[in-house]
Design brief:
It is built from 16 helices and 9 strands. By secondary structure, the protein is an alpha/beta fold. Helix 8 packs across helix 9, helix 8 crosses helix 11 and helix 11 runs parallel beside helix 16. The longest helix is centred in the middle third of the chain and has 21 residues. The N and C termini lie far apart (about 45 Å).
């Protein structure tokens, strides 16, 4: 019997009276503002998400909370490993549900890549587990017997856009979209950052592998989006055109997603987060009185490096054309 099974029995009564309704899924390629959006939405009352203190027993959060209460660490903030100015502590929201996806769909995590999901990949056991798990997070963050909304920030969910509405009825999916050349440059910087960190700090490498974060460094394992292999041929992760190819393949998939997916302009939120938050509250059915609170988390985007700004390639042209089409009113929902 697993820790999650034991937890189900111990907390059976509490879970029976707890509800997780209309979950929110934030996903995109990394470096698109998904973390700050998670933090902003998690600040709204009634929202429930994973915290850093849920490690290492992510799949049994209630049981671990009970066990760890006797030796709980303080929530002192420090800058995260990305070196991007975002400070985190034990009580900061984080993405840990990839552990669950890996447990139920191990065949999708191949040696060199990750296979996207579609509607044929529905798994009844996983669906039942997620239903209980979301209620556990609500019970833990809001209280047993309460109703809340689970928030997920999981970049890998960009590979599951077709499956999410079937697995989580009533879910809203928010996909931040960043200008492709700036996004590719940021992805490249983080890949180089984690190549160094994974070499110098074995703990960081092991920790990120344990939680299924394969985005960068020596752990880099791309999602095998349709067309990515052809687009990236001749490039390596040390080339900005590799990341432009990844951007194109990823957002071609996003473009074909259903109406349950809402695109968020990264730069617009950075310029005027409160205005964007007003629209976001409408979409997510959040009281407008929280719009300013959400919007205040956003700050101006960093300036583009001159060398990156001058980069020219057919892939950049293709990515920028795709970016423009994503926000065509006839093509998709945009915030």
């Amino acid at each position: 019997m697993t820790a999650a099974d034991i937890e189900d029995k111990i907390f059976q009564a509490e879970l029976a009276s707890t509800a997780a309704e209309n979950p929110i899924f934030i996903t995109s390629l990394p470096r698109a503002g998904t973390t700050i959006l998670l933090v902003a939405l998690a600040s709204v009352p009634g929202m429930a998400t994973h915290l850093y203190r849920d490690m290492p027993f992510v799949m049994a959060p209630l049981l671990w909370n009970q066990i760890s209460a006797r030796f709980r660490q303080s929530a002192e903030l420090q800058e995260r490993a990305h070196g991007d100015g975002i400070k985190i502590g034990m009580d900061s929201p984080e993405a840990f549900e990839e552990v669950i996806w890996r447990a139920f769909w191990p065949d999708h995590f191949r040696k060199n890549d990750i296979v996207p999901w579609d509607q044929t990949n529905i798994n009844d056991d996983a669906s039942a587990f997620f239903d209980r798990h979301l209620r556990k997070i609500v019970a833990l963050r809001i209280g047993s017997g309460q109703t809340g909304r689970y928030i997920s920030k999981n970049n890998a969910n960009i590979a599951r856009l077709d499956l999410l509405p079937d697995l989580f009825p009533g879910a809203n999916v928010i996909v931040p979209v960043r200008q492709p050349i700036a996004h590719a440059a940021s992805l490249l910087r983080q890949h180089q950052n984690f190549m160094t960190r994974h070499t110098d700090d074995p703990f960081t490498r092991r920790y990120m592998g344990d939680i299924g974060h394969y985005e960068f460094g020596h752990l880099h394992k791309p999602i095998s989006f349709t067309g990515f292999a052809e687009l990236s041929k001749g490039f390596s992760p040390s080339d900005i055109d590799y990341w432009l190819a990844y951007w194109i393949a990823a957002f071609e998939t996003v473009k074909d997603a259903g109406d349950h997916v809402h695109l968020l302009r990264f730069e617009s939120f950075c310029e005027d987060g409160r205005q964007g938050a007003t629209r976001l509250c409408d979409i997510l059915n959040i009281d407008q009185k929280f719009a300013n609170q959400i919007g205040n988390h956003f700050h101006p985007a960093p300036l583009l490096d001159d060398g990156v700004a001058r980069h020219k390639s057919p892939l950049r042209d293709e990515a920028e054309a795709l970016h423009a089409s994503l926000f065509d009113k006839s093509a998709h929902n945009g915030i």
